[in-house]
Amino acid sequence: MRTGLCMIALVAGGLCGLQGQAQTSGTAFPRGELSHTKNHTGNIWLNELNVGDSTFDPGIALATYGPGAKLDWHIHPAGQVLLITQGTGYYQEKGKPVQIVHQGDVIKCPPGVEHWHAAAPHSSFAYIAITPTQKGPTIWRRPVTDKEYNSVK
Questions:
Q1: Which of 13, 63, 65, 138 is a good FRET partner for 23, with 20 to 30 A between their CA atoms?
Q2: Rg, Å, the chain Cα set
Q3: Which of these, 99, 81, 80, lies nearest to 90 by C-alpha position?
Q4: pLDDT 10s digit of each residue in the chain, 153 long?
């Protein structure tokens, strides 16, 4: 399965030259609309590629972060897979150290585990998120503190 997901990320990232607008997201897909929700800090664009339904369950979205942008702590009841398509970012699960992630990495967020992800301070960051929806929507928690964000080693 990891090989298949990596191939999707490589193909998506490799097609960026085919569409002018897509170059800003690092994939074949436009980066979408600037998010105005209150569950993040900084500029994050979102392109909903598939809204989960009874036929095709997972929600699939492209998220593109400006440098230093970060999502609040949150939980996906059914888990999530992130295919990193551009830049350098951070990923942390509650109780574990922050991981630095790069283009081509595949992150598996286990079901029910509180975590956050963000762009590094001086890098844009993008991924395709695959999120099963059958167990409910994302549960948002508190913002990531500066101390947590800056704890990268």
A1: 138
A2: 14
A3: 99
A4: 433 333 333 334 333 332 333 345 566 888 899 999 999 999 999 999 998 888 888 999 999 999 999 999 999 999 999 999 999 999 999 999 999 999 999 999 999 999 999 999 999 999 999 999 888 899 999 999 999 999 987
Cα separation, 24 vs 57, whole angstroms: 28
